[in-house]
Amino acid sequence: MKFQIEDVTVYFPYDNIYPEQYSYMVELKRALDAKGHCLLEMPTGTGKTIALLSLITSYVLSKPSNPVKLLYCTRTVHEMEKTLAELRFLHNYQVKHLGPSARILALGLSSRKNLCVNPSVISAENRDSVDAACRKLTASWVRAMAVENPNIPTCEFFENYEKAASDAVLPPGVYTLQHVIWCKFANVVVYSYQYLLDPKVAGIISKEMQRESVVVFDEAHNIDNVCIEALSVSVRMQTLEGATRNLNRMSQEIERLKATDAGRLRAEYNRLVEGLAQRGTFLEAVPGNIRRAEHFVSVLRRLVQYFKGRLQTENVEKEGPVTFVASINAQVGIDQKMLRFCYDRLHSLMLTLEITDTDEFLHIQTICDLATLVGTYTRGFSIIIEPFDERMPHIPDPVLQLCCHDASLAIKPVFERFQSVVITSGTLSPIDLYPRLLNFNPVVSRSFTMSLTRDCICPMVLTRGSDQLPVSTKYDLRSDPGVEKNYGKLLVEMVSVVPDGIVCFFVSYSYMDGIVNSWHESGILKEIMQHKLVFIETQDVVETTLALDNYRRACDCGRGAVFFSVARGKVAEGIDFDRHYGRLVIMFGVPFQYTLSRILLARLEYLRETFQIKEGDFLTFDALRQAAQCVGRVIRSKADYGMMIFADKRYSRHDKRSKLPGWILSHLRDAHLNLSTDMAVHIAREFLRRMAQPYDKTGAMGKKTLLSQEDLEKMANGAGEMLF
């Protein structure tokens, strides 16, 4: 369908549109017109991605004289592929209606591991090995040597690309990860968060993106954590030992180069200054005592030795960046300016030494990354040194952690550089906390509800078992045999009532392991498996993928299955359990973070002092967004239906449940707030009976839940304001 939103003709590739999709587009256009940033919470399963892509690409097409680029950031390759598939569907529709003028070129960017087409390179075991294998075939010095010696291997794909690139023209279209891309002129780029938020990557990948770009962070409920991780570094003894090996190898290479090509070392300093100026990182001169390669290696040796000394401690130590830098300067004579240049100086030296096996040098890169961060930022960080993990105090495992506490530091350059940044997800409640955490002022901040033709979502709060004993994963109750038994009995009852798939989320791997063992010993697991097969998420990606495949097969064959998973795990963040794969999701407990973590305690202290966010408020907000993310896996469209059980007495408290998204709260009835197991089973039976009835997909209860082009035209003329 084609319709107007003010001066923009929107091309939407379906015959009908949900009212919330239309409202979402209106608010999004407001933000684009204002050239400002926005926060938009859109219920899960309501077509957020296609609404967003339709509006922004239509906006781009409507302003040919003012080209706008869309940078669409996703968290996983799976999400990237889904976005590109939606974009291709939309582009085909636009071409059909506009012809050649729908000149949108869209591409997906990912790591070499996902994009490389050279079989000898992608056979390497991990991403870093693939990068190194590629570099061994495509580095400029390797290719130069291959001209003189044809026996030196190069990459035929890259060579063919180089020959064709100057003349090649990539026609408009959507190019996914399965295609070979060689284009710098795309209107739409879909890539990972890290390509904009991690300064090491953003400086290379995103430096040429123009200010007029619109940046979208999709599924952005955890964006503050992604920002913090991008600026945090951990160093263990293995890192330091590896860094020492790296420095020995570099010293050997420097001596070899001195004997064979000393001019290259002399020329290196000039190239370094030029490189920094081009990247816009620092315009000041490199400190004199790290200009020469051997001097820089000597500085890094002293730094590694200092870190080794700090890891010898038997006590936990915590200090700020300023104190830490002063200590480094006092003990090994390396000042803040030298530290700040470490990462770029190392990059330059590795180019000069023509090092291709970059995967072997990850340890020294980690050291230089930490040095540059601690030399750049004076606040928003802590250095925490722990001699062991306090959950396993008998195993020495010293670690030095540079912990970022301020999410706004990583995203600040994005807000400053691009005219519109859209932060969107199905879970952004309470929405007013994100501007404080990320330190920005959105021009639009809006949470949308879901228009439904029937109550296809049934959230419940279960506070006690059939024996009326309370259930909770609160620390003093979580290992209570009565709680474990009541949780088990709840699942036994539900597997006998609910058809198809049931997904259970636990607060941690250790809690899941403990409770599954307890259920096995008491015979509860056997009772569950008389009704449905049970599959379990582990910390091994391959095992979990296999478990998910078999879970789906069990659901497809009609028997149904149960999948045990963990909040904050891979499954909770990226796997959909739509239709018969998820008719019920049970959240066992409230997924609070491990509150004795020193890194978390330091962050809470920083949030309280800097942003006046209370510890309890942040912990509850964080736990409830994780819980909402888990239960939201079960509804992926309006034709779908499913139940959500929040199994913990703490969810009945208003201060906890009020932080759930509005689209869940609007379906949470007062009568479902304080249930026992037998009451929940009764409600489940009634709900499933209702869902088995035929229903009108276009509207109910006097409201339209699908709008046609005619409806939108009426609204544009002011005659259809009451449609929704």
UniProtKB/TrEMBL annotation:
Q: What are the residue boundaries of the Helicase ATP-binding domain, all occurrences included?
A: 7-269, 29-253
Q: Which CDD domains match?
A: SF2_C_XPD
UniProt entry keywords in alphabetical sequence: 4Fe-4S, ATP-binding, DNA damage, DNA repair, DNA-binding, Helicase, Hydrolase, Iron, Iron-sulfur, Isomerase, Metal-binding, Nucleotide-binding, Nucleus, Transcription, Transcription regulation
Q: Which GO terms describe its biological process?
A: nucleotide-excision repair; positive regulation of mitotic recombination; transcription by RNA polymerase II
- Pfam families, per the entry: DEAD_2, HBB, Helicase_C_2
> Known catalysed reaction(s)?
ATP + H2O = ADP + phosphate + H(+)
Entry-linked PANTHER family: DNA REPAIR DEAD HELICASE RAD3/XP-D SUBFAMILY MEMBER, GENERAL TRANSCRIPTION AND DNA REPAIR FACTOR IIH HELICASE SUBUNIT XPD
What is the protein name stated in its UniProt record? DNA 5'-3' helicase
